[in-house]
Design a protein that fits this description.
The chain is an alpha/beta fold. Among the domains are: 212 residues, D-Amino Acid Oxidase, Chain A, domain 2 (2-Layer Sandwich), CATH 3.30.9.10; 83 residues, no CATH class. Helices cover 15% and strands 28% of the residues. The chain is built from seven helices and 25 strands. The strands form five sheets. Strands 6, 7, 8, 18, 19, 20, 21, 22 and 23 form a nine-stranded mixed β-sheet that branches. A hairpin with a 4-residue loop joins β19 and β20. The chain is globular and about 70 Å long. About 20% of the residues have low confidence.
Length: 486
């Protein structure tokens, strides 16, 4: 336990994707006390898993040599460190489309020579429909298996006594106070969406109660009333902030009652349970409204698509601090998983450089991922905080993104469109069948759209205390964090 009601840590890391767990292990091995806060009930449930799983060598960036060079350098290191998770027993073919491509075959070969990466020309007629590509090349590029990588990091971190991971964390605010940041969050680890609770004392959004009822916003309680925030209850009381209760008292958020519990968020129920969105006040580390508090002199924002949401939670920033939001666009993307034909099983294909597609092994799962520059993004938001039409009527909102794979409002699959595009290029024997879809939000720096570069961007918003945000769409550039963690 830390000073006062705060738990004190050396580092607080927000996000348990690869970048978050890599940083947690890095710092934990140095003997530091680390707290990792993760929204979902498990690590690697979003972008680290819901992507092409490509271990980039650089071929993907013929218009950005700097991105290609960094990718190639880290490719080799990633293989040395995490080769056990890499799927490398397939042939990765890059092809340049004969139409609507920013790059032709000759330029692609020159780019590969400049980047120092292998590129061997193949007969395009072996793989592609006549006249569809300008050239085909055998390359050296692999994919990784996110679940194998996840299990490795979880096992490694479990041996580090100083590292703690809180799943189901709901970030409330981050306050700068002298030489530390105070991080306030709700802990829903015992009341995850859709999970059955040990008893009825918890009620996270969507959590199943012991009596089988569902505790979502607006869903029915055991007594027949509804729990919608601010909605009128059947007993004529209200459940919103500052609204009237059946006994005539008011339940403003944080307002102390006669029984010393807190009203609305954090309100104590007749059975002794806590009404804070599914979190129980177990000890003095909970503050007002059932919120937990932790403090550290270093905060790492490794939330990828939620980077701006986390930045917007910071309060009391100093005049020399820089908490400007990233200038990004957000895409709600679909990765289609396919069952490959026997001919396709040992191949991956990427047609570029423009509105084309990729299909290649999805780690060691036995499936292939299918993506398309045109059809993988279903929706786009250019707002500082992501706004999508599918957020209506659910917990997801611009200030807090939920997991798209768990959302009942996720888009219908673009399978037919992506399949039609790929079939225009590939010979029929390289067939595949639909298996399932993965969805996630992908942030893209607006400055990268000109040359299609995908730099790893690390921003130091403050020092003493330190606040750092990392935004990267490539798995093997995780090593860029090293110099900021020492």
């Amino acid at each position: 336990m830390g000073i006062g009601s705060f738990d004190r840590y050396d580092r607080i890391i927000i996000g348990a994707g690869l970048y978050g767990l890599y940083a947690a292990r890095f710092c934990g091995k140095r003997g530091e006390r680390v707290l990792v806060l993760e929204y979902d009930d498990k690590p690697f449930k979003r972008a680290t898993h819901s992507n092409q799983a490509r271990v980039h060598m650089g071929y993907h960036y013929p218009r950005s040599l700097s991105t290609a060079l960094k990718s190639a350098g880290y490719y080799r290191r990633f293989h040395e460190d995490y080769g056990f998770s890499v799927m490398d027993s397939f042939r990765q073919i890059y092809a340049v489309s004969s139409q609507f491509s920013w790059t032709n075959a000759e330029q692609f070969q020159e780019f590969c020579r400049s980047a120092g990466i292998d590129c061997r020309q193949e007969h395009e007629s072996v793989f592609f429909q006549k006249g569809t590509v300008d050239g085909a090349f055998l390359t050296q590029e692999d994919t990784y298996d996110a679940m194998i990588l996840r299990d490795y990091f979880v096992d490694e971190i479990s041996t580090l006594k100083g590292v703690e991971i809180v799943y189901g964390a709901r970030l409330k605010s981050i306050r700068k106070n002298g030489d530390v940041y105070e991080v306030y969050y709700d802990d829903r680890s015992l009341a995850e969406c859709g999970e059955k609770q040990i008893d009825s004392s918890f009620g996270g959004s969507g959590a199943k109660q012991a009596d089988g009822s569902i505790w979502e916003s607006g869903t029915k309680r055991a007594d027949g009333s509804f729990a919608e925030f601010g909605a009128r209850q059947t007993d004529s009381s209200f459940g919103g902030s500052g609204t009237k209760r059946a006994d005539g008292s008011f339940a403003e958020s944080g307002t102390k009652r006669a029984d010393s519990s807190f009203g609305e968020s954090g309100a104590k129920q007749a059975d002794g349970s806590i009404w804070e969105s599914g979190t129980k006040r177990a000890d003095s580390s909970f503050g007002e409204s059932g919120t937990k508090q932790a403090v550290a002199g270093f905060v790492l924002n490794a939330t990828y698509a939620s980077c701006n949401q986390v930045l917007s939670c910071v309060e009391n920033a100093g005049p020399d601090d820089n908490f400007d939001l990233f200038t990004i666009k957000y895409e709600l993307c679909e990765i289609i998983l396919c069952r490959p034909s026997e001919a396709l099983r040992d191949y991956g294909f990427t047609v570029m450089d423009g509105p084309f597609f990729s299909i290649m092994p999805f780690g060691k799962t036995g499936l292939h991922s299918l993506t398309s520059v045109t059809f993988t993004p279903h929706m786009t938001s250019y707002d500082p905080l992501p706004v999508f039409s599918c957020q209506q009527g659910c917990e997801c909102d611009p200030r807090q993104l939920c997991n798209c794979n768990d959302c009942p409002h996720k888009p219908e699959s673009a399978w037919e469109y992506m399949r039609h595009l790929a079939d225009k290029y590939l010979l029929p024997e390289y067939g595949y069948e639909y298996d399932s879809s993965l969805f996630s939000i992908k942030p893209i720096l607006k400055s990268s759209e000109v040359d299609d570069s995908r730099p790893t961007t690390i921003v130091v918003s403050s020092t003493g205390p330190t606040f750092i945000s990392v935004l990267s769409g490539k798995i093997n550039t995780v090593y860029d964090l090293d110099e900021f963690l020492v």
